[in-house]
């Protein structure tokens, strides 16, 4: 195993690199790290957008000398995964079915991609001795009461609520078992709710922004009291690099930026920033089993690895995100009507 921090040229394999967090990771990596080459493995599900990598390699004069290449394939397909892992120095595993509401409609792709996909990747990692970073979520810990003084720590017991979070929890446990039993060189991170550019319009913040831009009313589940711990996607990805370079093998790091806010407050901020009346939204059917509150204690990452977030202010981060969706209508417009139709069928 070569120490990653000292490698002159790094060949990265990024699974799910055409989705929201993965593509931001690829773009910021190519911009900041000239010695890194990236292979993206992505199945190009509904959550991927083929335009997201446009212009991603600032050093490339054309497609032929680009430092990024896309392989369209399934992370659960060992024949595709094995040669890609064999040629990589580091694998960062973002690929997943990621939306709770979809997991309530049909859990089956969640089991296949999040569990079987992670298993398939781990077996290739084991064969080739490759450094592996596993991207997970704070949802594995279940939820907290609104007045609970505590936050999630790496010692909080797993208690997932939805098919999505249960499959992510299972995938984390597979990684831990492969570290212990087979000594694979893996780290895990569990992050809170991300926001920023390139996020699919099915998710809370981009759904509300694009509803306003499309002349539709934003939709709030229940009373909007549920709390999420928002972090800008660039802060998440910066923490991932910190863990890849300085994290201890076998360890779990929680990533969060002290960004707790309830959904009603986030929605009212979006409405205000977009020049809309404070009551210009609809209350819709609540999510089944809706987790009440997530909150991350990221002290281990901050103290042990010296990481700090750069985007402290949610309001200004939301303003920049609104600008991005305003400036990039062609990126999101094509899929918007279909998503809203699906939500409407479930009363949401
Ligand atoms: P996303 O849904 O936007 O993107 C997922 C990507 O994975 C898509 O490009 C999709 O095509 C790809 N994919 C799906 N199934 C695949 C398969 N079988 N093989 C190969 N590629 C496949 O998700 P996201 O929001 O970018 O989340 C990325 C990761 O981060 C996930 O593991 C998620 O659990 C985790 N996470 C997300 C958040 C968040 O707030 N979005 C927070 C913490 C952790
Ligand atoms: O905590 C990390 C998790 O954050 C990730 O693991 C998931 O992949 C990611 O999707 C996200 O999960 P959430 O379920 O918290 O995110 P979502 O954007 O779906 O919803 C955020 C909150 O907003 C949640 O309380 C439900 C609510 N909501 C959502 C939608 C889509 C609404 O009120 N209205 C909506 O239209």
Automatic annotation (TrEMBL):
Gene3D superfamilies: NAD(P)-binding Rossmann-like Domain, UDP-galactose 4-epimerase, domain 1. Its cofactor is NAD(+). It is an enzyme of class 4 (lyase). GO terms for molecular function: dTDP-glucose 4,6-dehydratase activity. Pfam families: GDP_Man_Dehyd. It catalyses: dTDP-alpha-D-glucose = dTDP-4-dehydro-6-deoxy-alpha-D-glucose + H2O. Keywords: Lyase, NAD. One of its GO terms (biological process) is nucleotide-sugar metabolic process. This is dTDP-glucose 4,6-dehydratase. It comes from Jatrophihabitans endophyticus. The lineage of its organism: Bacteria, Bacillati, Actinomycetota, Actinomycetes, Jatrophihabitantales.
């Amino acid at each position: 195993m070569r120490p990653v921090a000292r490698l002159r040229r790094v060949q990265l394999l990024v699974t799910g690199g055409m989705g929201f967090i993965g593509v931001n990771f690829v773009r910021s990596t190519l911009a900041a790290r000239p010695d890194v080459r990236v292979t993206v493995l992505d199945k190009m599900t509904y959550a991927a957008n083929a335009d997201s990598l446009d212009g991603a390699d600032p050093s490339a004069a054309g497609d032929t000398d680009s430092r990024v290449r896309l392989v369209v394939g399934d992370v659960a397909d060992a024949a595709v995964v094995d040669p890609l892992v064999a040629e990589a120095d580091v694998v960062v595993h973002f690929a997943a079915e990621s939306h709770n509401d979809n997991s309530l409609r049909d859990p089956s792709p969640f089991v296949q991609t999040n569990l079987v996909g992670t298993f398939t990747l781990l077996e290739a990692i084991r064969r080739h001795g490759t450094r592996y970073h596993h991207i997970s979520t704070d949802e594995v810990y279940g939820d907290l009461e609104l007045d609970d003084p505590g936050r999630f720590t790496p010692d909080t017991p797993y208690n997932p609520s939805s098919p999505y979070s249960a499959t992510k929890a299972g995938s984390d446990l597979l990684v831990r078992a492969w570290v212990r039993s087979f000594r694979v060189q893996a780290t895990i991170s569990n992050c809170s709710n991300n926001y920023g550019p390139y996020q699919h319009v099915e998710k809370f913040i981009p759904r509300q922004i694009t509803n306003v831009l499309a002349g539709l009313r934003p939709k709030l589940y229940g009373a909007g009291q549920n709390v999420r711990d928002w972090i800008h996607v660039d802060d998440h990805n910066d923490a991932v690099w910190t863990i890849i370079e300085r994290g201890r093998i076998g360890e779990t790091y929680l990533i969060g930026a002290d960004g707790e806010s309830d959904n009603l407050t986030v929605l009212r901020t979006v409405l205000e920033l977009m020049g809309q009346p404070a009551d210009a939204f609809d209350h819709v059917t609540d999510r089944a089993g809706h987790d009440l509150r997530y909150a991350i204690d990221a002290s281990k990452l901050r103290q042990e690895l010296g990481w700090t977030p750069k985007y402290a202010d949610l309001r200004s981060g939301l303003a920049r995100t609104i600008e991005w969706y305003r400036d990039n209508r062609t990126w999101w417009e094509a899929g918007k009507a279909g998503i809203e139709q699906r939500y409407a069928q479930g009363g949401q």
